[in-house]
Amino acid sequence: MSDRQWVQTVRHEQSMLSLPFGLGYTIDISETLTALAAAGLTARVETFDRLRFDDGRTALLATPDPTTTVTDGDGGEGRVDDVILLPGGSEGGVLSLVRRYPDLVVVNGKRGRVWGDGRQLSGTSMQREATPGWRTVFAIARSIVMHGGGTHAIADRSGVPFQEARAAMPALGVHVFHTPIGWEARDRPALVDWALAAYPGPGGIRTRWRRDTTIDQQADQLISLGGVMSDRWAAQQSGIIVAPDRLTAFFADHPDMAALGYEPASADDATVKVIVPQDTTVLTGAEGCCTDDFITAHVLYEDSWVAANTDAVNGLRQLLHFRSDLAHDLRWHPNNGSGAGGVG
Description:
By secondary structure, the protein is an alpha/beta fold.
């Protein structure tokens, strides 16, 4: 029987980090890009929170709270974007906003409406502040519970600077301890579950695309472009029995999907989701062609409540428990007949 209760229990009881609700949520801006194009403001994704228009202007994807995104705390000296883009769906107070801030562009992607320059151009908050270094803490937890090792080795494996890794280590507190061969988890199953269930998500932006070729062909092409794969396709690569009929591709820079033969698609029709993550450790800490199984489990869990996805998440959880125990045994008993071990 499908069981998701363990995730809710970990999230409710977790005490390692204090993270605001919603931190790390990925914003889908597929409809925002479509609405902008219809208004003559064709834009492309540049980073997880920034677009660039064809005329060279850049746009910051801001939260729907104008008091925290339009007003700069340093008097505006830190402002580097030409446009502040609010991809919100609510239209209450839109005209007052765009009249007050001429460089504000508001998009209602669902209804295809765009406002800017103080008028409607087309179509009939959360705060970001949180525990500093939360992405690094989760990357460190994933590395320690699976590989152990010293801080330098953990930093190299997770793709974070050594100083950041060392600064973030105290956040894990009593849940890890130092040994003669490096850091270890005090309770491996518990740390595996925490890294799976408490992770708030990669954040950033997401777009959806469709192409009438096989998922394997699409994955091979996107891997060749530097993408890191996740979702059901990646779960099957780890031996989890699930139909590999969905693909999520993480990129540091959004590829030109139209040039690759893709067309924008709805959530029901898409064959590929492209995410430019705010948490770049999902890219630097990838294993081979795919994200680590922690990230893949998160993608599956958050994307759908269908039984097949829940079963796949539970399968990845069991696999991570087994791998963690096996790796620990090989580190501490390298000559027990299981093979050559050593510090990860």
